[in-house]
Design a protein that fits this description.
Length: about 270
């Protein structure tokens, strides 16, 4: 089971008893070294191998595995070193993984990205193989999930720029009361976007209040737009009306102060 994490509102993620902090790393400026903390939150000793994988984001936010970089995409793996590449963690034990960035003079300005993949290693043995010679019609199979998790590692170098816009805001009403907001994020520039989609309901009378959020939304360099559907938390039990929705796409964790990438509004009658 491979879980690729685009991003969450938390600074750590866990899968298969492995806890990782932080959930993404960005090398920029003079930064050449970063640490990742791994922790075994399970009850058994666990072994994890660490490697790089390459993925492309699609316009619906899903990922596909790739071997070669597409147009507008550069891999970070050739410029990074990892130590160690395999860890053994006792229950409740933690260990630091070190990533070192090796800058090269011929690097093109822009963003380089790969994903660091942590794979659970176990001694998997199919059941019933000892009886196979005595009774070839009987074979027991034990299905054991192989847990894995990957996080983005990003390098930014040279002159970089990015901007965003929101379009195609549309309210999707289901079963009379359940409402989703559909929208499109547009990206221009030579680096990716990463932030939160925050939605406020602004009634014609009364104070605005938050009604929806999508945390850790990325738009990577291989795509120029991403389609989103955000579920609205409408606790009134009635469709929203007589007001407007205010939508903001706000940067997260990569700048000292949050930056509003883009804004949009949708009138509701």
């Amino acid at each position: 089971m491979l879980i690729s994490i685009l991003g969450f509102s938390f600074q750590s993620i866990a899968q298969g008893n492995l806890l990782i902090t932080p959930i993404r790393l960005v090398f920029e400026g003079n930064k050449q070294k970063e640490n990742l903390n791994l922790a075994n939150i399970g009850k058994d000793t666990a072994i994890y191998s660490i490697s790089f994988v390459q993925k492309n984001m699609k316009e619906d936010g899903s990922f596909v595995n790739i071997d070669k970089a597409d147009s507008g995409q550069m891999f970070a793996e050739p410029y990074l070193r990892i130590f160690p590449r395999k860890v053994t963690l006792a229950p409740r034990e933690s260990q630091v993984i070190v990533l070192q960035y090796r800058r090269k003079p011929d690097m093109v300005a822009g963003e380089y990205r790969s994903r660091l993949y942590f794979r659970s290693e176990k001694n998997y043995k199919p059941l019933g193989m000892g009886n196979a010679e005595r009774d070839s019609t009987t074979l027991k199979v034990q299905l054991i999930p192989i847990f894995g998790i990957s996080i983005p590692i990003i390098i930014r170098t040279g002159a970089v720029n990015v901007s965003a816009a929101l379009s195609d805001l549309k309210l999707d009403i289901q079963q009379n009361t359940i409402q989703n907001l559909k929208l499109t994020i547009h990206r221009t520039g030579n680096i990716s976007l990463y932030g939160d989609i925050i939605i406020q309901y602004v009634p014609t009378q009364g104070k605005p209040y938050q009604i929806g959020i999508a945390a850790g939304v990325g738009v990577y360099t291989e795509i120029n737009k991403r389609y989103m559907v955000v579920k609205l938390k409408n606790t009134s039990g009635k469709p929203l009306k007589n007001g407007k929705l205010k939508v903001q796409y706000i940067s997260k964790g990569e700048t000292k102060k949050p930056v509003v990438y883009a804004e949009g509004e949708l009138d509701i009658k």
